Amino acid sequence: MYRLKPMTFHIITIFPEIFESYFKYGVLGHAIKKKITKIKIYNLRDFTDDKRRTVDDTVYGGGAGMLLKVEPILWCVENIKKKIKNKKRKARIILFSAKGKQYEQFHVKRLKKYSDIILICGRYEGVDERVAKYVADEEISIGEYVLTGGEIPAMVLVDSISRLLPGVLGNTGSSEFESFEKKGYLEHPHYTKPAEFQTWKVPKVLLSGNHKEIENWREKNSKISKSAQCEKK
What is the reported pTM? Predict the structure, then answer.
């Protein structure tokens, strides 16, 4: 069954054009067409109070680069909140940050329960700290490395959550996700035809038709996730 109302991702960015092609095709395009997922892009420059549409400024205390200002981000978030008409809808505000908690599969499961997620994409040297303290509900990082902006993390989050919503993938991938949920396993090796190419062969067990042995092989050759390892400790 599909959701009665689409899950809506509100993305705040200074480069709205970045998202056009990514959300148009594949699984996400399918989810949007079926109105399971809805994407709304907000240009941060539309929420400034000056003619130059200034969204950044220099850093107090000195230092290279510019920071995104707190005012336009707050005004944009407040505007989005007003548009979420049904007060019973659950919303979550996320700021992408290198110092945020690392994004794992259990975060996907937690966040897919919300009806609206507001994503704040930083740029330049980052975002005024008051956004993290007073505007966002949480900070998320997709890895221990530095990116030029929060747009790629936003795509990652939208993709990872949307694919788990009812009606997006159908039965495809559901068994793998159930295995992950129960045992913490990530993906095992996959093969397709031909069974032999040059000297590279598909493991015999996968050609045997013995479902029990195949399941055991897949489990043995799956990598366990870091989050599952931590839970076992």
Answer: 0.85
Which CATH homologous superfamily contains domain 7-162? SPOUT methyltransferase, trefoil knot domain (3.40.1280.10)
The pLDDT tens digits of the residues spanning 176-196 come to 555 555 556 667 899 999 999
Helices (H), 68-150: 70-83, 105-111, 129-130
- Distance (Å, whole) CA 114 – CA 40: 15
Q: Provide the pLDDT for residue 226.
A: 57
pLDDT digits (tens, 9 = 90+) for 22-61: 999 999 999 999 999 999 999 999 999 988 999 999 999 9
Q: Given 3.10.180.10, 1.10.1270.20, 1.20.1560.10, 1.20.1050.40, which CATH number is that of 174-232?
A: 1.10.1270.20
Q: What pLDDT sits at residue 187?
A: 77
User: Taking 90 as the threshold, does the pLDDT of residue 86 lie above it?
Assistant: no
Distances, alpha carbon 199 to alpha carbons 188, 194, 195, 205, 222, in Å: 21, 12, 10, 17, 24
Backbone phi and psi for residue 140, each to the nearest 5 degrees, phi listed first: -130, 140
Strand partners, 38: 8
- What is the C-alpha separation between 12 and 46, in angstroms, rounded? 10
Mean predicted confidence (pLDDT) in 62-67: 88
Locate the domains of the chain by residue range: 7-162, 174-232
Rounded to whole angstroms, the Cα distance separating 167 from 170 reads 5
Residue 38 contacts residue 7 (beta carbons within 8 Å)? yes
